[in-house]
Design brief:
Layout lengths: L35 H6 L19 H7 L3 H6 L2 E6 L3 H6 L8 E5 L6 H14 L5 E4 L1 E3 L2 E2 L12 H4 L4 H17 L4 E2 L29 H17 L3 E7 L28 H8 L4 E4 L3 E2 L3 E5 L4 H10 L5 E4 L13 H11 L4 E3 L5 H14 L1 H20 L7
């Protein structure tokens, strides 16, 4: 990623150019131009209109940053590319000049917090726009980072045994370990509800105890606590896998045909996601399974209907992240670049690919489509701004 401004001491300095056409703030008539005596003598007197042009509103840091990015750099903000957790710096070097907005530490590392923190600091020092640095730190079988400085986390099912307030405090402690090591985003918690008695036939979630329970209300309480704990410590939470993988019998990472024929717009299994949105979750990850009653023609990650459900019915205004669009077998029949275009066209903000080499064709596909389609270009701009606003919200992006 590159803009005209170089990093200073790892702290990105945004361009100070204001957005053209900044919003104008009208002056309010709080007695301006009218003395108390006059107002008392003439109750019907109106405040004179102010003279001169109204002041321009100050653009946010995210808006100013976006204004300084060209089309390719804007598209790059929509990419989160996988790099090996065992060697993030060498992995990121494989990106070359591809301007990604974030990296995902894939695999497992037992190097500990000090080593991870040093590697992440190198990544941020080399970035012009700060990177979102994400991991899968759920617990149990899914924990990217271990070693000195990182607690071993119990499974989600075990975590759910704690009262919500206790769970929130516990998670905040784990999240501070991540934040101290430079991790800015956790791709969790899992908000999928697995029906009782079906755990072992649900390969992506239930088989690994990645769920917080079998009742949507209980899952909602635990997910709310985990979101709160993560974000109390300054780590952005990514609730997944909307609209739910708790009833599928196929893992989208390893096979095709994952489907939930029961999911509807009034599905009780949406409750944990709704609770997470109400709790201020930074991001929501959309699954690659299909949901015939919501969209019979497309997987959720490519479905405007599913994204509208998240935005309009659940009221989510944050960042929408795709499940992996790189190595996932579920999408292997779709050309790499088209995966990114279809996801962004449906309403996804961040395209996640665990395959480092896929970042280039995905970025190029987004740029080419934006150049040919003004409406798509506007969608890219909107998503890039949303990504930058999230970075600003969590103190990652700052401006002079």
């Amino acid at each position: 990623m590159s803009t005209s401004t170089a990093p200073t001491g790892g702290r990105w300095r945004a361009s100070v150019a204001l957005l053209a056409g900044a919003l104008l703030v009208p002056l309010t008539a709080c007695g301006a131009g009218s003395s108390p005596e006059r107002a008392a003598a003439s109750p019907t007197a109106t405040t004179p209109a102010p003279t001169g042009p109204p002041p321009e509103a100050t653009a946010s840091c995210a808006e100013r940053t976006l204004d300084g990015l060209d089309r390719r750099e804007r598209a790059g903000q929509l990419l989160m590319a996988g790099v090996p957790a065992t060697d993030p710096v060498s992995g990121a070097a494989e990106l070359g000049d591809v301007p990604v907005g974030g990296v995902f530490l894939r695999g497992r590392s037992s190097a500990g917090a000090e080593a991870i923190g040093a590697a992440v600091a190198q990544l941020q020092d080399a970035a012009t726009v700060p990177l979102q640095v994400a991991v899968d730190q759920e617990g149990g079988a899914v924990q990217t980072l271990t070693g000195p400085g990182f607690d071993l986390l119990p499974t989600a099912l075990e975590q759910a045994g704690q009262p919500p307030e206790q769970l929130r405090a516990t998670v905040a402690g784990w999240a501070r370990q991540l934040r101290d090591a430079g991790i800015t985003m956790d791709l969790g918690p899992v908000a999928d509800t697995v029906p009782a008695g079906t755990e072992h036939t649900n390969p992506p979630i239930g088989a690994y105890d990645r769920h917080y329970g079998t009742d949507p209300a209980a899952v909602a309480a635990a997910v709310t606590a985990v979101v709160g704990g993560l974000q109390d410590a300054g780590v952005a939470a990514t609730v997944k896998h909307f609209p739910g993988l708790g009833r599928v019998d196929v893992n989208t990472d390893t096979d095709v045909g994952a489907s939930d024929p029961e999911a509807t717009r009034t599905d009780p299994h949406l409750e944990p996601f709704r609770a997470a949105v109400a709790a201020g979750a930074a991001a929501v990850m959309v699954s690659s399974a299909t949901y015939p009653q919501l969209d019979p023609d497309r997987p959720a990650v490519f479905s405007p209907a599913v994204l509208h459900l998240l935005r309009d019915q659940l009221g989510f205004s944050g960042v929408v992240v795709s499940d992996d669009l790189g190595a996932a077998v579920a999408l292997s029949g779709v050309p790499v670049g088209q995966r990114a275009v279809a996801a962004v066209g449906a309403g996804v903000d961040v395209v996640l690919t665990v395959e480092t080499g896929h970042a280039r064709p995905m970025t190029e596909a987004l740029v080419d489509r934006a150049a040919a389609d003004p409406a798509f270009a506007a969608r890219v701009d909107g998503s890039a701004l949303r990504v930058l606003e999230l970075k600003e919200r969590f103190g990652l992006l700052t401006c002079d």
